[in-house]
Specification:
This protein is of the alpha+beta class and 409 residues long. It has 8 helices and 19 strands. Strands 9, 12, 15, 16, 17, 18 and 19 form a 7-stranded mixed β-sheet that branches. Strands 1-8-6-3 form a 4-stranded antiparallel β-sheet, with no helix packed on it.
Amino acid sequence: MKKTHTIRLPHLGEGVESADVSEILVSPGDKINTDEPIVVLESDKASMEIPSDIKGTIQEVFIEKGKEIIAGDKIVSIVSEEPTENKAKEKEEEKQEETKNQTIEKHTAHTTTKKTEHTFRTSPSVRKLARELQISLSDVKGSGKKGRITREDLIYEIKDRMTKKGADREKQEIDYSQWGPVDFIPLSKVKKITGTRMESAWREVPQVTQFDKADISGLNTYRKKLNKENPTIKITFLPFLIKAVTKALIKFPDLNSSLSVDKKTLIHKRYYHIGVAVDTPGGLVVPVVKNTNKKDIIEISKELEDISRRSREKQLKPEELKGGTFTISSLGGIGGTYFSPIVNPPQVAILGVSKAKKEPVFSTSKNSFMPKDILPISLTYDHRVIDGAQAAVFTKYLGSVLLEFLQET
């Protein structure tokens, strides 16, 4: 026997009166299981999925993408099969258990206000997850029909607890002077802003770093040649790296992208604006060299000289710090080997470059070891967008592009 059910929009929470339909996930005729999402909504506070609490077939969809809906509005109608004898028996047992718990709750109302877990409407998978995480369902506010607790409700509870836990763990100021003399050095405005952004990036972006080496022996020779031909400017290694990175980004567009706010779409950018980390007396700033695919080494060298000088003199314009699609952080002039730079959202990758040094590399053609200029590189990437294989192929290709400068000598 078939029965038609109408799914309506539940109350979305305190302070949320309505929401816009961002995505409709079902169509008439689709089969749907309990707790499967029907629609994605966007409010001024959050993005959320509304699940079905009925298993069956979608009969009619009452909403339209982009339209606003409020609590109580019809979303879809679903045709379900009436429970079989066994299902009906399970349903009856569940109802008896609920009645029993409600009776217990009623008799103990003057001693406790906490419900037992069995009185809550939710799926077995959510109950299991709550037990594994040691979270009582009595502490979770259900947003589903008749207060049904969904997986999303449980996740929101976990996030809320983590936030509160972090606040509870806020450190008390320590009096370090009790052990000896101290100085108090206020952080610059740039360092405060950078620190906040980096802390947020580290917390929100799952980051992994791929380490590799690149042979730049030919590049160094070619760079010295260009410096002799252009004595009015100083051509460093960085412009070559910018050009090589740009070529690699054209071949691997995932690394020249951003993740959409709802984390469901990857936005490929068909422009190449490379951010370059510059160390200044006030802290780290990242001016952007734009349209690097349309500029040669000499043009990029002149632009880098200009923005580096103006960065240190605090003369950069706001638009010169925006629009970057990928960032390079170079410690080549300082030293060290490898390091793990932090991704600069909404970008999905950043390249760290350390100081090149001479290393013996075996030459198959000469059957002996040859001294080569080897550059350590570190690619940190957003693991939601890029996997380890992509990262490894990217750094390998970047190394091959840098090696191509040998042909220019």
